[in-house]
Amino acid sequence: MDQWAEIRRRVLVEGVSQRQIQRETGLHHATLKKILANPEPPGYRRTKGRRKPVVGPFLERIHEILRADQQVHRKQRHTAMRIWERLRKEHGYTGQYNGVKLAVRAWRMGSQEAFVPLRHDPAHGQVDFGKVLVRLAGVEVPATMFVATLPFSDALFVQVYPRECQEAFHAGHVAWFEWLGGVPIRISYDNLKLAVRTIVGGRGKDESHEFTRLRSYHCFAAHFCRVRRPNEKGHVETLVKFARQNFLVPIPEVADFATLNTWLREQCTADLQRQLRGQAKPKGELVADERPHFLPLPTQRFEARRVETTRASSLALVRFDRNDYSVPTRWAHHPVTVIGGIDAVRIVAQDQVVATHPRCWARAQVCFEPVHYLALLERKPGAFDFARPLAGWQLPESVQVLRRRLERDLGHRGTREFIRVLRLLEHCGMADL
Asked: pTM for this one?
């Protein structure tokens, strides 16, 4: 550059002849002409593409393989090395691997999709699920993470549930709306089966009954992204990873999911104090700007639950979500309705709740309530000591003393009398008994 500037000064300012400069420097006249025409070196400028005499005849075949790969799962697509091996074996290619590698790289760079930055309006939300691990009572178990965000303010809300299901989907929405103090006017989703039954034209159109019930309570509009186009809600896709790495690393160890979710709500509230790059205000102030656009919360609180109709078996058991729950034996063989929530399962028969159990999230488990079988055991007292629903039932010492005295005084009739006493638990608690 020093020589370039000096030559231009001597010729253009001092009037030294170009021939004199050529004699002194040995430059070609074309090079000297370029120096005088440009204030700085223009760099190498190619007028036509470089010839590829070896790989050139095979470029169309390489592109054909790569185009076919777009219809195959990404884990079974061709590498540049595999394409080079196929060209040598099937088409007699004699060139080196590097030529094929550069051709594959150039094609992939030119075929990558570009995206348009989107504008995010106030009170527009996005929802997604993500997989996580939690440690309950020292045992590591898989769980699902409900993630919701308002892209306008970047407000993030996270809850963790045992499994991705209808109840978790509903409970996440209810908790999110209550945390915000209102309802976004429009929410974007994947085409998840919890919300849509069929996909029309690449988007979910036929909503599930339960999702429509959720929308009817809260009156928000739903937007379903095209199939395999997560970029349409890319904001929440990014925040799923952010929430997992920032809130759930290391793996949290908690007593139950309720404790974990309370802590997560506190973390989401604290996160509102952050101010992101390019934003004039912290997240919390931007949410306050959005709040006038929110829809009001419903006057009647939405119940997050799944409803199924079934029939109680001869063992007075009702199957729900791959687990069995007991009902009073008088309802055996009867049709019942099961209402499954996040924390409890209620069983309804003839418009009355006949049984309530804590929700079991394991598989193939049986949840017994011993009191449900006392009426039947009163007629079959001989099965009292062998009844599976009563296994492990810890009775107070005073109750056990009563049994011994009744059986001592009344013989075999004492067991039946004892069961009649226990049946008072159908109407009172153990302390009162």
From this structure: 0.76
